[in-house]
Design a protein that fits this description.
Elements lengths: L1 E6 L8 H7 L4 E4 L6 H6 L6 E4 L24 E6 L2 E6 L9 H8 L5 E3 L6 E4 L5 E5 L12 E7 L4 E7 L9
Parallel strand pairs: 1-2, 2-3, 5-6, 6-8
Antiparallel strand pairs: 1-9, 4-5, 7-8, 9-10
């Protein structure tokens, strides 16, 4: 069995509670709109492996100049082989919002699950397969109820998904 932290849409700010949860996982998957290399550095799963894709905001004009070289390593989508099947990862801005889950299932029929971000909306669509998973926003921008992520326990014959949503942080001075 392997434990995978699934997150997206940090936009340069990783919630500390999500960061702590990732440390208890074997690897981490980031579904794009990372925001800067510091976010990726803070993701420290047990196996020290992070798989990330580029979001629509992961472009040179939006990243710190001294970190832009990291963008060349981010692809549009990744396939991650896990016990029991493949996890397809894409940010989702490339897919029209209307019927997005249906379109993702058609694009990645080989996958057991598909991870996407972009909408910042936490969704676990597990019927039918492949599952379509949006972990919501793991930073501060548009969390729609608080920062969130998912944890996938992948074994050869069984996958189990846990959804984590944290209370929004209170802003002082307002």
């Amino acid at each position: 069995m392997i434990r995978v932290a699934i997150l997206a849409d940090t936009h340069g700010r990783l919630d500390a509670r999500v960061e702590a949860l990732v440390a208890d996982c074997d690897l981490a998957v980031h579904g794009g709109d990372i925001g800067n290399a510091d976010v990726l550095e803070r993701l420290r799963p047990r196996q020290r492996r992070v798989v990330a894709v580029a979001g629509n905001n992961d472009r040179p004009s939006k990243w710190p100049p001294e970190q832009r070289q990291f963008l060349e390593y981010l692809r549009e989508h990744e396939d991650l082989e896990l016990p029991g099947g493949a996890l397809a990862i894409i940010h989702g801005h490339q897919i029209a919002a209307r019927n997005r889950h249906e379109r993702l299932r058609r694009r990645f029929p080989h996958a057991r699950a598909i991870v996407y971000g972009h909408s910042h909306r936490l969704i676990a669509d597990r019927d039918p397969e492949p599952w379509v998973l949006n972990p919501g926003a793991a930073g501060r921008a548009r969390t729609f109820g608080g920062p969130s992520c998912m944890v996938l326990d992948a074994a050869e014959h069984h996958w189990e998904l846990r959804i984590e949503r944290f209370e929004p942080l209170k802003r002082h001075g307002r």
